[in-house]
User: What shape does this take?
Amino acid sequence: MVELIVGKKGKGKTKVLLDKVNGAVKDANGSIVYLDKSTKHMYELNNKVRLIDVSGFPVKNADEFVGFICGILSQDHDLEQVYLDSFLTTAKLEGKDVTETLDQLSAIGDEFKVSFIISMSLDKEEVPAAYQDKIICAL
Assistant: This one.
């Protein structure tokens, strides 16, 4: 399953994502991972959430990013939710079509029963038509 939080840069998507992840900790049975482009939000996250700074890994394109996600899934069989902040930056998709990568994450989520909650700097109108119904918050 894929859920999207969208809006231009500086609109408050990260705050919405942080509130959502910290709220999800109470009800989670498995583990939760939060991927970001830095460790800047480390102290705003509940200590039960695993923060991964993607910039510390040699991810060069969207396919490698999906492989990175699969590596995380392969190491944690209890993984329930993955929160992706700054998605366009971490997945190397700035200025590119996000459809194929979202399709891959959606398929991975269905197969491994993992939810992906994604924050990305796009206006609601810029989100591919196939994912309009996945928008849970547009800022």
Summary: The chain has a mean pLDDT of 94. The CA atoms of residues 31 and 76 lie 8 Å apart. The radius of gyration is 14 Å. The longest helix spans residues 62-75.
